[in-house]
Protein backbone atom coordinates (compact mmCIF):
# COMPACT_ATOMS: atom_id res chain seq x y z
CA UNK A 1 0.00 0.00 0.00
CA UNK A 2 1.85 3.04 -1.30
CA UNK A 3 0.12 5.88 0.56
CA UNK A 4 -0.77 4.51 3.96
CA UNK A 5 -0.11 7.90 5.57
CA UNK A 6 -2.60 9.46 3.19
CA UNK A 7 -5.25 6.96 4.33
CA UNK A 8 -4.35 7.64 7.95
CA UNK A 9 -4.76 11.35 7.30
CA UNK A 10 -8.15 10.90 5.63
CA UNK A 11 -9.38 8.74 8.51
CA UNK A 12 -8.21 11.18 11.19
CA UNK A 13 -9.80 14.12 9.37
CA UNK A 14 -13.04 12.16 8.99
CA UNK A 15 -13.18 11.41 12.71
CA UNK A 16 -12.54 15.05 13.59
CA UNK A 17 -14.92 16.48 11.00
CA UNK A 18 -17.67 13.95 11.67
CA UNK A 19 -18.67 13.46 8.03
CA UNK A 20 -17.31 12.34 4.68
CA UNK A 21 -18.76 15.41 3.02
CA UNK A 22 -16.82 17.84 5.22
CA UNK A 23 -13.56 16.00 4.57
CA UNK A 24 -14.23 15.89 0.85
CA UNK A 25 -14.73 19.64 0.85
CA UNK A 26 -11.55 20.10 2.88
CA UNK A 27 -9.50 17.90 0.53
CA UNK A 28 -11.17 19.21 -2.64
CA UNK A 29 -12.37 15.76 -3.62
CA UNK A 30 -15.67 13.86 -3.66
CA UNK A 31 -17.58 12.22 -0.83
CA UNK A 32 -17.46 8.77 -2.53
CA UNK A 33 -13.67 9.08 -2.81
CA UNK A 34 -13.32 9.73 0.92
CA UNK A 35 -15.69 6.86 1.72
CA UNK A 36 -13.71 4.56 -0.58
CA UNK A 37 -10.41 5.51 1.10
CA UNK A 38 -11.82 4.64 4.51
CA UNK A 39 -13.05 1.31 3.13
CA UNK A 40 -9.58 0.58 1.71
CA UNK A 41 -8.03 1.31 5.11
CA UNK A 42 -10.56 -0.95 6.84
CA UNK A 43 -9.78 -3.75 4.37
CA UNK A 44 -6.08 -3.26 4.99
CA UNK A 45 -6.55 -3.45 8.78
CA UNK A 46 -9.15 -6.19 8.69
CA UNK A 47 -11.64 -4.40 10.92
CA UNK A 48 -14.45 -1.85 10.85
CA UNK A 49 -13.37 1.59 12.01
CA UNK A 50 -16.56 3.59 11.49
CA UNK A 51 -20.21 2.70 11.80
CA UNK A 52 -22.06 4.55 9.05
CA UNK A 53 -25.68 5.66 9.14
CA UNK A 54 -27.50 8.13 6.93
CA UNK A 55 -26.95 10.87 9.50
CA UNK A 56 -23.86 10.20 11.60
CA UNK A 57 -20.51 8.42 11.72
CA UNK A 58 -19.62 6.62 14.93
CA UNK A 59 -16.25 5.17 15.88
CA UNK A 60 -16.17 1.48 16.69
CA UNK A 61 -14.00 0.27 19.57
CA UNK A 62 -11.31 -0.65 17.04
CA UNK A 63 -11.74 2.74 15.40
CA UNK A 64 -11.29 4.57 18.69
CA UNK A 65 -8.05 2.72 19.42
CA UNK A 66 -6.76 3.13 15.89
CA UNK A 67 -7.60 6.85 15.81
CA UNK A 68 -5.25 7.57 18.73
CA UNK A 69 -2.41 5.63 17.10
CA UNK A 70 -3.03 7.06 13.63
CA UNK A 71 -2.91 10.59 14.98
CA UNK A 72 0.35 9.84 16.79
CA UNK A 73 1.77 8.40 13.59
CA UNK A 74 0.91 11.54 11.64
CA UNK A 75 2.44 13.71 14.34
CA UNK A 76 5.58 11.56 14.31
CA UNK A 77 5.84 12.07 10.56
CA UNK A 78 5.41 15.82 10.99
CA UNK A 79 8.05 15.84 13.71
CA UNK A 80 10.44 13.93 11.45
CA UNK A 81 9.91 16.52 8.73
CA UNK A 82 10.52 19.39 11.12
CA UNK A 83 13.71 17.75 12.40
CA UNK A 84 15.35 18.12 8.99
CA UNK A 85 14.06 21.62 8.40
CA UNK A 86 11.12 21.08 6.03
CA UNK A 87 8.67 22.70 8.45
CA UNK A 88 11.25 24.38 10.71
CA UNK A 89 9.38 23.16 13.79
CA UNK A 90 6.56 25.65 13.36
CA UNK A 91 3.61 24.92 15.70
CA UNK A 92 0.55 24.11 13.60
CA UNK A 93 -2.57 21.97 13.72
CA UNK A 94 -5.15 21.12 16.38
CA UNK A 95 -3.91 20.92 19.97
CA UNK A 96 -6.13 18.65 22.05
CA UNK A 97 -5.73 20.04 25.54
CA UNK A 98 -7.30 18.57 28.68
CA UNK A 99 -7.67 20.09 32.15
CA UNK A 100 -10.03 20.14 35.10
CA UNK A 101 -13.13 22.24 34.59
CA UNK A 102 -12.52 24.86 37.28
CA UNK A 103 -8.82 25.22 36.53
CA UNK A 104 -9.60 25.54 32.83
CA UNK A 105 -12.19 28.24 33.39
CA UNK A 106 -9.98 30.29 35.72
CA UNK A 107 -6.46 29.77 34.42
CA UNK A 108 -6.40 28.16 30.97
CA UNK A 109 -9.14 29.84 28.93
CA UNK A 110 -8.14 33.40 30.02
CA UNK A 111 -4.64 32.70 28.66
CA UNK A 112 -5.72 31.29 25.31
CA UNK A 113 -6.02 34.67 23.52
CA UNK A 114 -2.33 35.30 24.21
CA UNK A 115 -1.43 31.78 23.09
CA UNK A 116 -3.44 32.13 19.87
CA UNK A 117 -1.87 35.51 19.15
CA UNK A 118 1.56 33.92 19.47
CA UNK A 119 0.69 30.73 17.58
CA UNK A 120 -2.13 31.62 15.15
CA UNK A 121 -1.77 28.36 13.21
CA UNK A 122 -2.59 26.25 16.28
CA UNK A 123 -6.26 25.53 16.97
CA UNK A 124 -7.37 24.46 20.46
CA UNK A 125 -9.72 21.57 21.18
CA UNK A 126 -10.26 21.97 24.93
CA UNK A 127 -11.45 18.98 26.94
CA UNK A 128 -12.47 20.06 30.46
CA UNK A 129 -13.53 17.44 32.98
CA UNK A 130 -12.97 16.72 36.66
CA UNK A 131 -12.82 12.99 35.94
CA UNK A 132 -9.84 10.90 34.83
CA UNK A 133 -8.75 11.42 31.24
CA UNK A 134 -6.96 8.63 29.39
CA UNK A 135 -4.68 10.60 27.09
CA UNK A 136 -4.10 7.84 24.55
CA UNK A 137 -7.65 6.48 24.54
CA UNK A 138 -9.17 9.96 24.11
CA UNK A 139 -6.54 11.28 21.72
CA UNK A 140 -5.30 14.04 24.03
CA UNK A 141 -2.03 15.77 23.13
CA UNK A 142 -1.49 17.49 26.46
CA UNK A 143 -3.15 17.64 29.85
CA UNK A 144 -2.62 20.14 32.66
CA UNK A 145 -3.15 18.39 35.97
CA UNK A 146 -3.04 19.53 39.58
CA UNK A 147 -1.70 17.00 42.07
CA UNK A 148 0.75 14.13 42.10
CA UNK A 149 0.73 11.86 39.05
CA UNK A 150 0.69 8.14 39.79
CA UNK A 151 0.69 6.96 36.19
CA UNK A 152 4.16 5.77 35.25
CA UNK A 153 3.21 5.33 31.59
CA UNK A 154 3.00 9.08 30.91
CA UNK A 155 5.46 11.95 31.03
CA UNK A 156 5.02 14.78 33.53
CA UNK A 157 6.80 18.13 33.52
CA UNK A 158 6.33 20.41 36.52
CA UNK A 159 5.07 23.80 35.31
CA UNK A 160 3.65 25.26 38.51
CA UNK A 161 2.64 24.77 42.12
CA UNK A 162 -0.57 25.30 43.97
CA UNK A 163 -0.78 26.08 47.65
CA UNK A 164 -3.88 25.02 49.55
CA UNK A 165 -5.44 27.14 52.26
CA UNK A 166 -8.08 26.67 54.94
CA UNK A 167 -10.66 29.46 54.74
CA UNK A 168 -13.94 30.63 56.22
CA UNK A 169 -16.03 33.79 56.22
CA UNK A 170 -15.78 36.23 59.13
CA UNK A 171 -19.48 35.60 59.74
CA UNK A 172 -18.97 31.88 60.19
CA UNK A 173 -16.04 32.45 62.54
CA UNK A 174 -17.99 34.99 64.61
CA UNK A 175 -20.70 32.38 65.15
CA UNK A 176 -18.59 29.24 65.59
CA UNK A 177 -15.17 30.42 66.73
CA UNK A 178 -11.75 30.19 65.07
CA UNK A 179 -9.78 26.92 65.11
CA UNK A 180 -6.23 27.32 66.43
CA UNK A 181 -4.92 23.85 65.53
CA UNK A 182 -5.95 21.24 62.95
CA UNK A 183 -7.45 19.09 65.73
CA UNK A 184 -9.92 21.90 66.48
CA UNK A 185 -11.63 21.26 63.13
CA UNK A 186 -13.48 18.33 64.71
CA UNK A 187 -15.80 20.86 66.38
CA UNK A 188 -16.55 22.73 63.12
CA UNK A 189 -18.71 22.41 60.03
CA UNK A 190 -16.22 21.53 57.29
CA UNK A 191 -17.12 21.44 53.61
CA UNK A 192 -16.27 17.87 52.64
CA UNK A 193 -14.92 17.36 49.12
CA UNK A 194 -15.81 13.76 48.31
CA UNK A 195 -13.14 13.35 45.62
CA UNK A 196 -10.18 14.28 47.83
CA UNK A 197 -7.66 11.43 47.76
CA UNK A 198 -7.50 11.41 51.54
CA UNK A 199 -11.29 11.25 51.81
CA UNK A 200 -12.91 13.14 54.70
CA UNK A 201 -9.48 13.96 56.15
CA UNK A 202 -7.27 16.99 55.69
CA UNK A 203 -3.47 16.92 55.78
CA UNK A 204 -1.36 19.74 57.25
CA UNK A 205 2.33 20.46 57.51
CA UNK A 206 3.75 20.99 61.00
CA UNK A 207 7.22 21.30 62.50
CA UNK A 208 7.05 17.68 63.65
CA UNK A 209 5.86 16.45 60.23
CA UNK A 210 2.60 16.13 58.37
CA UNK A 211 -0.56 15.56 60.36
CA UNK A 212 -3.89 14.31 59.00
CA UNK A 213 -7.14 15.00 60.80
CA UNK A 214 -10.66 13.73 60.08
CA UNK A 215 -13.27 16.37 59.24
CA UNK A 216 -17.03 16.34 58.89
CA UNK A 217 -19.91 18.62 58.13
CA UNK A 218 -23.42 18.81 56.70
CA UNK A 219 -22.25 19.81 53.20
CA UNK A 220 -20.56 17.33 50.84
CA UNK A 221 -19.60 18.32 47.28
CA UNK A 222 -17.94 16.67 44.29
CA UNK A 223 -15.85 19.53 42.88
CA UNK A 224 -13.60 22.16 44.37
CA UNK A 225 -15.49 25.12 42.91
CA UNK A 226 -18.45 23.99 44.99
CA UNK A 227 -16.20 24.04 48.08
CA UNK A 228 -15.30 27.66 47.32
CA UNK A 229 -18.95 28.61 46.76
CA UNK A 230 -20.13 26.91 49.95
CA UNK A 231 -17.44 28.61 52.02
CA UNK A 232 -18.36 32.03 50.59
CA UNK A 233 -21.97 31.37 51.61
CA UNK A 234 -20.81 30.92 55.21
CA UNK A 235 -21.72 27.22 55.29
CA UNK A 236 -18.47 26.13 56.85
CA UNK A 237 -14.68 25.87 56.61
CA UNK A 238 -13.06 24.88 53.32
CA UNK A 239 -9.75 23.30 52.32
CA UNK A 240 -9.19 24.86 48.91
CA UNK A 241 -6.39 25.41 46.37
CA UNK A 242 -5.34 29.05 46.44
CA UNK A 243 -5.79 29.41 42.68
CA UNK A 244 -9.57 29.37 43.13
CA UNK A 245 -9.49 32.89 44.55
CA UNK A 246 -9.02 35.17 41.56
CA UNK A 247 -11.50 37.86 42.60
CA UNK A 248 -9.73 39.22 45.69
CA UNK A 249 -11.83 37.22 48.14
CA UNK A 250 -8.93 36.91 50.59
CA UNK A 251 -7.41 40.35 50.05
CA UNK A 252 -10.76 42.06 50.53
CA UNK A 253 -11.50 40.21 53.76
CA UNK A 254 -14.49 38.27 52.42
CA UNK A 255 -12.58 35.18 53.50
CA UNK A 256 -10.09 34.66 56.32
CA UNK A 257 -7.17 32.24 55.99
CA UNK A 258 -6.99 29.94 59.02
CA UNK A 259 -4.26 27.76 60.54
CA UNK A 260 -1.45 29.66 58.86
CA UNK A 261 1.13 27.80 60.97
CA UNK A 262 -0.18 24.49 59.61
CA UNK A 263 -0.50 25.17 55.89
CA UNK A 264 -1.45 22.09 53.84
CA UNK A 265 1.31 20.60 51.68
CA UNK A 266 1.50 22.24 48.24
CA UNK A 267 0.68 20.30 45.09
CA UNK A 268 2.44 20.29 41.72
CA UNK A 269 0.83 21.55 38.55
CA UNK A 270 2.11 19.41 35.70
CA UNK A 271 2.01 19.22 31.94
CA UNK A 272 1.17 15.61 31.13
CA UNK A 273 1.73 14.01 27.75
CA UNK A 274 1.89 10.43 26.50
CA UNK A 275 5.48 10.15 25.28
CA UNK A 276 8.80 11.94 25.07
CA UNK A 277 9.32 10.72 21.52
CA UNK A 278 8.17 12.84 18.61
CA UNK A 279 6.81 15.66 20.74
CA UNK A 280 4.97 17.80 18.22
CA UNK A 281 5.98 21.49 18.00
CA UNK A 282 2.45 22.55 19.00
CA UNK A 283 2.71 20.48 22.21
CA UNK A 284 6.18 21.74 23.07
CA UNK A 285 5.04 25.32 22.43
CA UNK A 286 2.01 24.91 24.71
CA UNK A 287 4.06 23.41 27.56
CA UNK A 288 6.60 26.22 27.43
CA UNK A 289 3.86 28.83 27.13
CA UNK A 290 1.87 27.70 30.19
CA UNK A 291 5.05 27.20 32.24
CA UNK A 292 6.04 30.82 31.53
CA UNK A 293 2.51 32.10 32.17
CA UNK A 294 2.13 30.30 35.49
CA UNK A 295 5.51 31.62 36.60
CA UNK A 296 4.03 35.14 36.38
CA UNK A 297 1.18 34.27 38.78
CA UNK A 298 2.05 34.09 42.50
CA UNK A 299 -0.80 31.62 43.01
CA UNK A 300 0.75 29.20 40.52
CA UNK A 301 4.50 29.71 40.26
CA UNK A 302 6.92 27.00 41.33
CA UNK A 303 9.18 29.35 43.27
CA UNK A 304 6.53 30.15 45.88
CA UNK A 305 6.50 26.68 47.48
Q: Could you characterize the architecture of this molecule?
A:
The protein has 305 residues and is of the alpha/beta class. The protein folds into three domains: 80 residues, Winged helix-like DNA-binding domain superfamily/Winged helix DNA-binding domain (Arc Repressor Mutant, subunit A), CATH 1.10.10; 106 residues, Periplasmic binding protein-like II (D-Maltodextrin-Binding Protein, domain 2), CATH 3.40.190.10; 99 residues, D-Maltodextrin-Binding Protein, domain 2 (3-Layer(aba) Sandwich). The protein is built from nine helices and 14 strands. The chain has a five-stranded mixed sheet with strand order 4-3-5-14-6. Strands 12-7-13 form a three-stranded antiparallel sheet. A hairpin with a 4-residue loop joins strand 1 and strand 2. The N and C termini lie far apart (55 Å). The mean pLDDT is 87.
Mean pLDDT: 87
- Assign the structural class, choosing from mainly alpha, mainly beta, alpha/beta, alpha+beta, or little secondary structure: alpha/beta
Order of helices and strands: HHHEEHEHHEEEEHEEEEHEEEH
Low-pLDDT stretches are none
Note the beta-strand portion.
Answer: 15-25%
- How many domains? The number is 3
What is the strand and helix layout of this fold?
Layout: H1 4-17, H2 20-27, H3 31-45, E1 50-52, E2 57-59, H4 61-83, E3 93-99, H5 101-108, H6 112-118, E4 122-128, E5 142-146, E6 155-162, E7 164-168, H7 170-176, E8 192-193, E9 201-204, E10 211-214, E11 220-221, H8 224-232, E12 238-241, E13 256-258, E14 267-273, H9 281-295
Parallel strand pairs: 3-4, 3-5, 8-11
Antiparallel strand pairs: 1-2, 5-14, 6-14, 7-12, 7-13, 9-10
Helix pairs in contact: 1-3, 1-4, 2-3
Amino acid sequence: MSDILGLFRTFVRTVEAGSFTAVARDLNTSQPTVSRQIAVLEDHLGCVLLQRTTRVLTLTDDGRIFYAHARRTLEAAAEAESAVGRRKGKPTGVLRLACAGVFGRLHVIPRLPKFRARYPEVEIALHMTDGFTDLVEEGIDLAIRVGESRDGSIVARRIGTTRRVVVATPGYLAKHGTPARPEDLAAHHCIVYDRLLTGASWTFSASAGDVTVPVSGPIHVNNTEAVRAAVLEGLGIGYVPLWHFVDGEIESGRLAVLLRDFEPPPQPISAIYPTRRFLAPKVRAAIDFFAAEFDLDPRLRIGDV
